[in-house]
Amino acid sequence: QVQFVESGGDLVQPGGSLRLSCAASGFTFRSVFMNWYRQAPGKERDLVATISSAGGITNYADSVKGRFSISRDNAKNTVYLQMNSLKPEDTAVYYCNRAPPFASWGQGTQVTVSS
After folding, report:
1. What is the pLDDT of residues 57-110, one digit of tens each?
2. Phi, psi (rounded to 5 degrees) for 111
3. Residue 13 CB-density burial (10 A; 0-12 exposed, 13-18 middle, 19+ buried)
4. Strands 18-25 and 78-83
5. Which end of the chain is more exposed for a tag (fewer CB within 10 A), N or C?
6. Contacting residues for 100 by C-beta, under 8 A, at least 6 apart
C-alpha cells in the first residue's frame, strides 16, 4: 500500500525558513522521481519541485526557484524540501508524491507564512 507522511509545516514569518520531510512507503522509492506539490485555499494543486531517482537532477517552479531546494535520502525513503526566504504566497498545504503521482496522497503539511 502506497503511503506518504508529510511533516515539518508550521507558521513562519515572511523571510523565514522551513524544512519539510516526506516519508514514503509501499513502492520502490529509490527507483522513481519524486515531486513536491502545494495547494493553496481555493486553488488547484501545483507542482513545486522534482528530483530524479538518484538525486542528481532537480527542477523547480519559477515561483520558488532560488529559494527552495529539494533533496532525498534513498536509505530512509524520504524526500525533503528546504524552503528559504518564505513569502505569504507560499502559504499552502504541501504534499509529496511520485512523478507521475499515484492516486493515493498523504494528508499534507500546512505551511503558513504570515507576520
Report:
1. 999 999 999 999 999 999 999 999 999 999 999 999 999 999 999 999 999 999
2. -115, 125
3. exposed
4. antiparallel
5. N
6. none
